[in-house]
Amino acid sequence: MITVSGKSVCWREGMTVADLLKQIDDSQAYAVVRINDSYVTRPNFGKTVIPDNSEVFLIPMIAGG
Amino acid sequence: MDAKTKETFIGGKGYDLWLLWNAVKPTTKWNDPENEICIAAGPLGGTPIYPGSGKSIVTTLSPTTATVIDSNVGGYFGPYLKFSGFDALEIQGKTSNNVVIFIDGVDQKIQLFESTGLPDDAYELSATLTEYFAAGKPRSISVVSTGPGAKNTLIGCLNFTWYDVKRKRARYKQAGRGGIGTVFADKGIKALVARWDNVTADTNNPANKSALKNVAKLHSREIVELDPKQNEMRRIGTTHLVTIMNDHDLLPTHNFRYGQHREAPNIGQAVYRPLFDPGFDGCWMGCTVACSHGIKDFVPLTGPYKGQNVFVDGPEYETIAGCGSNLGIFDPHTVVEMNFYCDTYGLDTISAGTAIAFAMECYELGLINETHTGGLRLNFGNRLGALELVHQMAKGEGFGHVVGQGVRKMKEIFAKDFGADRKIMQDVGMEAKGLEFSEYMTKESLAQQGGYGLALKGPQHDEAWLIFMDMVHNFIPTFEQKAEALHWFPMFRTWFGLCGLCKLPWNDIIPEDNKDTSEPAKIMKHVQWYAEYFSSVTGRKTTPDDLIKMSEVVYNFQRIFNLRMGFGRREHDAIPYRAVGPVTEEEYLSREERYDKQLAEFHKVDINGKSTAEKIAILRQHREEQYEKLKNAVYNRRGWSSDGIPNLKTVKRLGIDFPEILELLKTHGVA
Ligand code: SF4
Questions:
Q1: pLDDT tens digits for B506-545?
Q2: Contact flag A43-B248 (C-beta cutoff 8 Å)
């Protein structure tokens, strides 16, 4: 099990960030997520595997900076 | 201020500009006595219960751009100045007496001290003056000062203090851009000190306290709830941006040649997180973002503080990129040391970083050599070389003295005195309007090229940061959409400067339901809160559209101010080609697939058989054309002529059709 922005989501072996975003079907276009203390960006979504028991945070980043 | 002026210029930057406009002439130079430094807090500044409400806005005529510069800075000075009875401070004239100006709101007096024997650098001076004036209450003091670097370069900054009760020390934030510290030093001012006692929700005298409390609570609570789930700015400041920018090819490295480097994680949040001293780091009271972190017990390896334990305020993203990756330096310790000494010496970390990066590139290109640099081998990555330049800037000695003149003047010196090629320096010297670029890559974002190039004061991202909207999310694909973004975002961001606010609480922590709104980039829920906040403090019923109109008035006035000083036209919105596309073959080849694809698919160019040099030239022609088209679209949206001058209809609509403005416009063919 992992939590995604505070909500529990089932975890499966080999699950990537890209898989997760497809699964939760969120309408927002995320470019960045945080897994525990590490930031993962869109170019790496497909190759970053989420470990079990992770806390995942979906980070809306649009016009900051 | 009479009622009409108040309604027109609102406060903060608006008041500063109006005071400065009335003080200077078109011929005034930055170091003339009549040039002024204006500081104002804005009507909302000094509210302790609404996050990010303690900014001071500082303006002057800049030594590097020769026209108006403005900077938005934290620390307690602006609010204390206002509570002492002054909406704005206007400093004119010059003295040779190292004056300390003490504005004492508690005892209601102003004193001017001639000073001798005070420390030269801001680190010690801030602590000394805080202790001297505190009368046992150091939190009641805020000091504004600079350092020897400001006197000996053109890129001096001002340090504004706030007292950190837990750590028992004066901390500071910087009004960095455009050499305001240099003007301050040139005036012979040693420091400004403001004193005020307790601050409560009543101190700013809000028109409707209960409405203020309601909206402040909503925003404050949301930040406390969501920041830990989003960027954790309360824990790591803006350091998370380093690897995020790096992954998107947006982190400047090697004088903006590239946007990515494999060693970038060495200067990212994972490294700084454990270095930051945990605790409350709000640069104004009650700011729940509290992102102004610092490092304690840091031991510099060079300079006058070598081997001593010091506290360093920072680093933030801009300093890490400017004094780190953009110099090819990926050592976190060097970045912190550059940060410490730049602040202490009163140097802007962004301009210092971008200027050193330019010098390093010129050295690597063979445009300058050791005979010019005083023996320094200025290859990218030379950590001690970069630090040595900072120390030389402080002393006004050696090659550091040349670098401290900023990129525009360096180009002139290198060409005239060292015979360096002007054309290549024009392409890679990262300045526009005379101001050094802040630290984002713009090659793949036309909208952000406009965000920098069309910014009134020069390439600082505080007007518009559209890279993600444009390049990553592709929300604004057409010229019209980019122009609309380059209208709305600079206007809304300007509003923070009118009111004495920090923009971070607006769009660095985002409501969970924001994604369901029609324009997620604007964070309209927060914009609505800001309108309510303004209404509750001033008693002037305000809608989100009113906020944009307030800014439009001051924004256009500033553009016209530039025009009055001999700038503010289309030609002044030019940017170096390094900001637009690949200058060298090395740059093109490093992203060959991307550029080839763009030429073939987007510009429909047959690239078969073309050399790299030919492809660079064709791409350049297309990209430069696009930038010019963008200018047309933005000028049109803003109600400006094709030469970038606000037209009559615009100044009338905004109520700034004063006789002297109409006269000025007439001399520029606008009638
Ligand atoms: S968000 Fe950060 S910079 Fe802005 S006021 Fe708060 S502490 Fe200061």
A1: 999 999 999 889 999 999 999 999 999 999 999 999 999 9
A2: yes
- Could you say which architecture CATH assigns to the domain A2-60? Roll (3.10)
Arithmetic mean of pLDDT over chain B: 97
Is there a contact between A31 and B510 if contact means CB atoms under 8 Å apart? no
CB of B284 closer than 6 angstroms to any ligand 1 atom: yes
Q: CA B3 to CA A45: how far, in whole Å? A: 55
Output the domain CATH number for residue B116: 3.60.9.10
Structure tokens belonging to residue B393: 């800037």
- How many domains does chain B contain in total? 2
State ipTM.
Answer: 0.92
B89 and B141 belong to one structural domain: yes
Domain that holds residue B497: 1-228+478-553
Same domain, B416 and B497: no
Of B553, B588, B609, the domain-final residue: B553
Where b means 16+ CB within 10 Å and e means fewer, B1-36 reads: eeeeebebbbbbbbbbbbbbbeebeeebebeeeebb
Sheet of strand A2-4: strand arrangement: A7-9, A2-4, A55-59, A32-35, A38-41
DSSP string, B248-272: TT-S-BTTTTBS--TTGGGGSHHHH
Closest chain B C-alpha to A63 CA, distance in angstroms: 6
β-sheet bridge partners, residue B253: B258
